[in-house]
Design goal:
about 160 residues; mainly alpha; elongated
Length: about 160
């Protein structure tokens, strides 16, 4: 079954904004607020955080595949690909390097070994901000592109009437 360009465009925009929303909700709302809850200790917060971020990462990878497939089938212009690939490169850096490194730090803390000072959390925050910006920009560009495509595909029919 072939998907129409409008269906693929809708799915792409939905995947991008859902992905951005999930990152915003978890990284910038849930994670910092978790440690303000009564009776949440650092080890408990770390344990919850590890589970939540592992799950978020899997959902992000799934949404990235949806976005890539849709973008590839739609043959989007290069400027949209550039913003999408920026988000994907950030996700890959987090998945392959930063999340495992942060996980090692969390394991050490949970085992009672104080971890030496590190800038990894700052790097993670910078990458999250960059990823969200790239996702939102890609979503807006993809939506505008879909609108232009829909307008151009309907224009000849309107001229015939």
């Amino acid at each position: 079954m072939r998907s129409s360009p409008s269906t693929l465009s809708l799915l792409l925009v939905l995947a991008l904004f859902m992905w951005a929303g999930m990152v915003l909700a978890i990284s910038f709302l849930e994670a910092p607020l978790k440690f303000t809850a009564p009776h949440i200790t650092v080890p408990l917060g770390l344990g919850i955080g590890r589970i939540v971020f592992q799950a978020l990462n899997k959902v992000e990878l799934a949404l990235s595949v949806v976005a890539l497939v849709c973008a590839g089938r739609l043959r989007l212009p290069s400027h949209i690909w550039l913003t999408l690939l920026t988000a994907l490169l950030v996700l890959l850096a987090q998945t392959l390097w930063l999340l495992p490194a942060l996980d090692v730090r969390a394991e050490a803390l949970l085992a009672g070994h104080p971890a030496p000072p590190s800038s990894q959390h700052v790097v993670y925050i910078i990458l999250e901000v960059s990823k969200v910006a790239a996702l939102l920009l890609t979503g807006v560009l993809a939506f505008r592109h879909a609108q232009r495509q829909a307008f151009h595909s309907q224009a000849p029919a309107a001229q015939l009437a």
